[in-house]
Design brief:
single chain, alpha+beta, Ribosomal Protein S8, Chain: A, domain 1, GMP Synthetase, Chain A, domain 3, 2 domains, 5-stranded antiparallel beta sheet, 3-stranded mixed beta sheet, 4 helices, 8 strands, globular
Length: about 180
């Protein structure tokens, strides 16, 4: 069974499936050139309307071009996904098919606290909307995050970033002065 969920980004729609797609983490494919280890994403880009593919634990978020209507796109994507899953072709290969080993990183308390808050509060909420937010770096009070999936290019991403994430981080981690998207 595959069902859709709207996202705050009108150009993105979340296709939820009843199976695990990723062993761990998420995978973002903003262009066809980024799909080397993602056969399913590569084939989705064969549709003219696909402008981005994001894969989470049990969903695929499709970002479509503005010239296409969701009413036209949804049946095509659902039919494609059903056929692809039934064919037993690999969804992901290479680096995406392996469960990554936890990295031993020597982080200061501030960075560790930022990452804990991202994991416990931010990423689960953003995943519900078909996207992800990934820690990039923290330098001189500026927390830099990468927006993926439906978050990338979403009209409300600035609001989420500033009023949601920045408010949380500046309150919980006093060293954070501002949050920026990269």
């Amino acid at each position: 069974m595959i069902y859709t969920e709207i996202t705050p980004n009108p150009a993105s729609l979340k296709f939820v499936v009843e199976r695990q797609l990723m062993a761990a983490g998420t995978a973002d494919f903003p262009t066809v050139d980024s799909t080397e280890d993602a056969p399913i994403a590569r084939k989705l880009f064969d549709f003219r309307f696909v402008e981005g593919v994001f894969i989470g634990q049990n969903f695929i978020t499709i970002t479509k071009g503005s010239d296409f209507k969701w009413e036209e796109v949804i049946p095509l994507v659902k039919d494609f996904l059903k056929a692809y899953f039934a064919s037993n072709q690999p969804l992901l290969t290479g680096k995406y098919a392996e469960v990554p080993e936890p990295e031993e990183v020597d982080e200061d308390d501030t960075t560790r606290r930022i990452k804990e808050l991202l994991e416990s509060h931010v990423r689960p909420a953003v995943a519900m909307d078909g996207g992800d937010i990934v820690y990039e770096d923290f330098v001189d009070g500026v927390l830099r995050l990468r927006l993926q999936g439906s978050c990338s290019g979403c009209p409300s991403s600035t609001l989420t970033l500033k009023q949601g994430i920045e408010t949380l981080m500046t309150r919980m981690v006093p060293a954070v002065k501002t949050v920026e998207a990269v």
